[in-house]
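User: My collaborator sent over this chain with a note saying "see what the structure looks like." That's all I know about it. Can you take a look?
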Amino acid sequence: MPSQNPVFIPGPTNMPEAIRQACYMPTIDHRSPVFGKILHPCLNGVRRVLKSESAHIFIFPSTGTGGWETALTNTLSAGDKILAARNGMFSHRWIDMCQRHGLEVQVVETPWGHGVPADRYEEILKADTGHVIKAVLATHNETATGVKSDITAVRRALDAAGHPAMLFVDGVSSIGSMDFRFDEWGVDVAVTGSQKGFMLPAGLGIVGFSDRAMEATKTAGLPRTFFDVNDMAKGYAANAFPYTPPVGLMNGLKLSLEMIEEEGLENVFARHHRIAEGVRLAVSAWGLDLCAASPDLYSDSVSAIRTPEGFDANQIVSRAASEYDMAFGIGLGEVSGKVFRIGHLGMLSDALMLSGLATAEMVMVDLGLDVKLGSGVAAAQEYYRHGSR
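Assistant: Without extra context I'll predict from the sequence alone. Here is the result:
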């Protein structure tokens, strides 16, 4: 019998049955007006989730990684200078992509478990009196470490320096699950994907461009074809893509956006925060620590949990899969073997989360860790139960 257990990886996330059915649709003529009835609600819905009045939304058959490439190739030229912090695996990968595209990256090495160092950004930007730096990268939610960075502080750093660099934000594991304010934060390009807060399979790279970023496309020299936002915009004007669109996934996205807005954006964020708080209380009851260095950095979509020194955290993930048919996330990069990750985003409820916490406890007890069976579950239950609030 196939597993009916929910997954607790940071993405792809659990998928509502209605969204799965929406993706599984009959073939339509994607060059007919019928596709426009799917396309434009998706574009408008994503814009609202970003809390923007004017962002130009583009949806590519891709992933968040394709969204990174879209941001770079449409706005920059070889040799342009970029400012970025390396504070986790995904910021590292975006930096690597910049370098492969011939961009010069000034990397601010930051301990994993810490957020983007806005104060250091400000120092560097103030020193760049010639405004050589063309773009600043920030990972809003570092999926590898469970760290949320303060994008407001990054915007303040740019403003305090009077610097015209564009602000690119990776919101792959935050957008749709945590508050994101494209207009208020002065974001020029926001990047996300379908498989996390939007509760879809992987396959859509979703980006928002500011007017300023669109202006930069006129002079950008990096090569692009598949990810050309101007080609995409021309297609949208005719209710089409410049190539064959992923119709089923976009029909699923249309329904996902309807479901998010029916619940209410603020309610979605509050639900993620509540579930995350229960996880954090469970971690504390287990006598373990989060990778995130302080509470202001705690992510509401994923928790990276440190295991005792000398213990291979990957054992927890492998045993949960083999013995209990449940999926948790492994540690990546510098924290490989040092943490395991619990994803708590997308289609999730308090009750579903309790099943994940109970399984994690059984696994840790099986492996001989000093964890009392039921301790974390009880801590989360006390927080989740309606009589406690």
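A starting point for your reply to your collaborator: The mean pLDDT is 97.
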